[in-house]
Predict the structure.
Amino acid sequence: MTTTEPRPSIRTELLESRPVNLDGFVEEWPEKGLVAMESDFDPAPSIRVEDGRVVELDGRARADFDFMDTFIANHAIDVASAEASMAIPSAQIARMLIDPGVSRGEVLAVTRGLTPAKVLDVVKLMNVVEIMQGMQKMRARRTPANQGHSTSARDNPIQVAADAAEGALRGFAELETTLGVLRYAPLVAIALQVGAQVGRSGVLTQCALEEATELELGMRGITAYAETISIYGTESVFVDGDDTPWSKAFLASAYASRGIKMRFTSGTGSEVQMGNAEGKSMLYLEIRCILMAKGAGVQGLQNGSISCIGVPGAVPGGIRAVAAENLVASMVDLECASGNDQSFSHSSMRRTARLMPQLLPGTDFVCSGYSAVPNADNMFAGSNFDTEDYDDWNTIQRDLQVDGGLRHVREPEILQARNTAARALQALFAHLDLPAISDEEVEAATYADSSNDYPLRDVLADLKGAQSVMERGITGLDLVRGLETTGFHDVAQSLLNVLRQRVSGDLLQTSAVLTPDFTPLSAINDVNDYAGPGTGYRLAGERWEELKKLRHVTSATNPETEVG
Amino acid sequence: MTAATTASDRTVTLREVGPAGRGTRPDEVVVAVSPAFAGHFTKTIVDVPHVEVLRQVLAGIEEQGVTARIIRVFDTADLAAIAHGGAKLSGSGIAVGMLSRGTTMIHQKDLPRLSNLELFPQSPLLDAPVFRMIGSNAAQYAKGESPQPVPTRNDQMARPRWQAKAALLHLKEFECIQAGRPAVEVEPVFGRVGSRPLA
Amino acid sequence: MTPVDPGRSPARLVVGVDIGNSTTEACLAVVAPEGSITHLATDLTRTTGVKGTPDNTEGALKAIRGALARAGRSAGQVETVLLNEATPVISGLAMETITETIITESTMIGHNPTTPGGEGLGVGTTRSIGELGEQQPGEPVVCVVPHGWDFDDVAATLNAAVAAGVDVVAAILAGDDAVLVTNRLERPIPVVDEVSAVEKVPLGMLAAVEVAAPGRTIRTLSNSYGLATVFELDPVQTRQVSPVARALTGNRSAVVVRTPTGDVTDRRIPVGELVLHGAGKTLRVDVDAGAEAIMEVVGRAQPLDDARGEPGTHVGGMLAQVRDTMADVMDIAGQPDVPVSEIAIRDVLAVDTFVPAEVRGGLAGEVALENAVALAAMVRTSRSRMQLVADLVSEGLGAAAEIGGVEGEMAVGGALTTPGVDRPIAVLDLGGGSTDAALLTREGECTAVHVAGAGELVTKLIDSELALGDRDVAEGVKWFPLGKVESFFHLRHEDGTVEFVDQPLSPHVFARVVVLTPDGPAPVPTRHGLDHVRRVRREAKRRVFVVNALRALRQVAPGGNLRALEFVVLLGGSALDFEIPDMIADALAPHGIVCGTGNVLGTEGPRNAVASGLVRAHAALLAEEARCRSR
Amino acid sequence: MQRGACHSGASLRGPTESEPALSASPPPELTTADYPLSINRPELLHTPSGKPITALTMDAVVSGELSAEDLRIAPETLQLQAQLADASGRPQLAANFRRAAEMTAIPDAEVLAMYNALRPRASTAAQLAELADRLERAYSAPVCAALVREAAEVYARRDLLARPTADVG
């Protein structure tokens, strides 16, 4: 017998070439916090209340509290009910979460008194289906929605406007942008706002920037909400980010004081990624973030690992932990914008599976940034889904009869919206004496896919224009006036209605969005009333008819034609 | 390639020669490495051997006619602290700081610690030619020249592939921190696999 | 100024509006019946459309409304809007590269790497490093090292060969390894590196490698007789290789390979003729003859009636396009057609320049500075559409609008409000596309000319000569003084002074040549030193503005005699430049002329001359009428 | 206590046909059924300059009657939204709105400066105490002041105060 060189089988070679094997996976290391949610190093739940004050939290006495413990003890935990809630066995609370006979309100009456370790103890008992069941009931807003990213690799405002218009038309309730060159922000934020209102009136927009500029654009009424206010689960990482729970709580009030909707951002994996997890599991630290956000009185949270998704994604049970963190946000009554917003895997199958725990039960925003531009143009470093996935997404909604917030839109409507957005921006820029947008650019915007399909802009002139927007103190009102006087009455009216909302403060309430007729829809007037089969939000009626449409559906009446 | 040996044959050990002091030569660049570099770890996140990283950075400096001094830091694994600490000891005020996983930074002593001259945060995208260019640029800054910044690359799919491994390597490097131990000057001893290192 | 007395016959609110090539300016004033003027406000905005066409209306209205807003007046109060009689001027720019350097048979490597190794001269036969082992001792060898070789291995291989008796006298490397290799050699040799196309170096040929000490340049290979000595050439052969020597002059390192017919040629690229019609003549000149020859011919064809270039060349295309644009602009429905004869090139400015270009046949990306000619041209027509603009402005504002005067005359009138000037006065309007001059004699006669070439040509020259490839950066170099950031806390200005700063400068400007913009230093992406950038900038300005200032002033000066001028006032955007006014003043000083940047109304600097000139002219008219009535 | 803190702008508002000026009566007790206020209770909503929300029309925008100030939220409105948050079982959200109501009076730049002062190791104990006093005295913002004082206490314990600079002492 001859010995042969060891060689892989043909099947192994085939498997090796599968995209999933380009993803990275690592072993757990609980001592350092490189573990999703099941760690012997997480503290055991405990609480002691004396004189209306939490004096012990999860095995730590008040004198030993770090600032997260202190903030959570002082602001997040309802001292009146805490000892009673903590006395309820975790298994019973977990059952309440999935029991249709227990209302959302009844669950909230318990969760408001729980400590981080207790919350972890509860969700650790739940498998991913149970987590989804919990989410289905605990989501704050009855009607699920979705959020899109509209950015440009060249920071081209015309592209941002056109893609925002298409995205809004396809169904995103919120649109977010950010920049490659930060100084472009004013022009791109204006473009996003105009495009969004062209696509569908009442869509809310934001521009992710450092705090001061983000707040200023909001104050001026150029953007409508804010989201990139990051918080962390350990004191050392929080301080490394140059903030504390108190500074962030102050910032939250600052936004509210200007009538601007705002949510915090956090996610599993950020602390271990920064090397300072203090030996705690990713989910435990994220629960601390969620309760900190709750204590700050912010209405909502963007979580689901977000930019650290590669970390939980690489450890066992990591995506279950990500689903759990979304559930925890919802079960303490926060709006949850549930991630699915960063490039996650080389494998399409894995990308889709990662989405299911949010898509199937529905969340306040299934993606906190579905890329409404090709991923190459996504300045948030790529999303889990992009424009190439639109038809797949719509088909999955139709297959499973779930509402992921999007819909199929026919080509002529899309071209119309893109063209109108570009023309509106062209007129507005001319009115505001900003660098001109040519007819050629408008034409390109109508039919483009990516930033490569647009003529190059004079960047220096644009940056000067952007600076002049800030220097001249241009506000949302100037945009309204410009759109109105240049004949874009609907867009102007729509933007004015969005601006009026900040006077009413209605969008400050939990999970608020604006319907196309400018009705604020929040967890107050659209309460999630799920109580078992046949209740809660159901995909039916007009909306279901809308979601039945796809690009190619063979007509039953005349099989030689297609409907849609 | 016709090269007589492949890079992977080479080895390096960093021999301590004494406490790290402030340099006086205006024509030197300090190369400051993290606690586990070419010690606990032997290669970067994408398997570039540390011997090659070091050879190329030093070669980039030498080719510009500038001298290099290597310093090992023990009490931190924070890249900015390593690079800035190195810059403060450098006779020219310029240092290259490197972590075991490959993340690299060019720093200057008068800059705030959290700033830098050039930063290469995406360790999975750094290969031998990039390390050569980093050394070359550091030396040119030391000479007061205006090098074109080394082109930085970007890959959106680096996150799913490398983010967790980077975190793991980061944690391991933290494990190697020896709090309070002052930095030392080291001398690289290059050798070949199977042959005795040349002293 | 006399206060307005509302009790007497009413003072009138008038606006002078100057529509220029790039900016539209307004001057709002109250004119009393006896002609005294109270200035209320000025405003400036971008010109919309091509000057002298109905598209101007929007910008004109904007400037008028801007001035009204500043003065707190309303449009209804305006009695008359005064527009300048502006004729459309369209200018164009083109550049032709007229030389090309070609290396044949890989005769030479002259890319001047920043860090060659060793020093001295080595002459031997080219051999690949892989074949060194087979080399017989004795014969001198120039070792050629392809890509992929590590510097340690190269040094070890060369040391081993030398130890075996091979006479390695020099090396040519693909990578940037020359210093590294020489530092490791037991016997030092000159080494040239970064030869990217090293595989094209002919092997088995006699070659010479020379490296000079740092800060010095090669002496042998850049000298024709040095080459003759090294390669034992006869006089005929020496004559042939002299271009090689010339091409290598100024280098710190070089390689020359002796091949049977190898050569370096400096070829002239024919780019066709420029045909100039004027002064009843038709004159032809080859564009590749250079700027001096072209301008000499242009001078003989003055006043120019038209110019055409060779179809298919940049210059030909540009001249045709400028003409077409003008035809399109003048083609307005309901307006009489403009005869083709009126749409013609009225001036041409040629400037010699150079563009860095990669050498054909080079082995290491050698760049040669090739000669080029930049050409600015200008079309002007006497047919204006200003009446149409006046009608539209009148309609838009609800006030009367009229043509208040001719541009050049009005500019002179406005310039006269500059403190310290008097007739005879000449103005030079330094614009973007053209340089304009007008003269008002002591007797009140006014003449005006427009010549091609202004700020945009300067930008183009800076852009191409520094190989920036970025118009915005070139604009920055043109507008702002230079500096060199020497540390985070100080920078050296181009005049040598040092400025210390409190806040550390940004890392992206560290150790760089910068332009000092109002927003702080911005880096100039170039390997050239500050002095070189400065020289290029000043040369570009001199070749355009100083040349054109003299050219234009000679055309308006009585008898072409500059000494007949007394006061020259600089106006326009480029008069705000930090050095152009001084350069022009220096050039005019020998002719006894007082020259400086205008300060219209004593407040407006070089701006608003035409607009305020219009108001002055109107006031003078009213005063004249008043005098007539009172008589 | 909150009811006493009426905005001086109220008197500029003048009487409207249906609603007496806010200063004349305590805020109404709201329930969740009143939400959204912009649809169900627009008569309660005014701009800080005293215009009713119904005055925010396109005509008013185009004619230049409205300024950016008219698109800000009034402190009274934030108090109303705080009531709604309380009524829907969200005491922390309500507390946030009450802090926000206090902060409407603080100019944008100063809000940002205060936020920066709360960053770790940005302020000394004395500076934070001064900030709390200023909130209370200059802006009648006791709830915000309490948050700052709480932060000061925690920062002291967790070594997050700025160390006094040498020249100060």
About this structure: Residues 1-87+384-417+601-631 of chain C form a domain with the Nucleotidyltransferase; domain 5 fold (CATH 3.30.420.40). Chains C and D do not touch (no CB pair under 8 Å). The first strand of chain C starts at residue 12 and ends at 19.
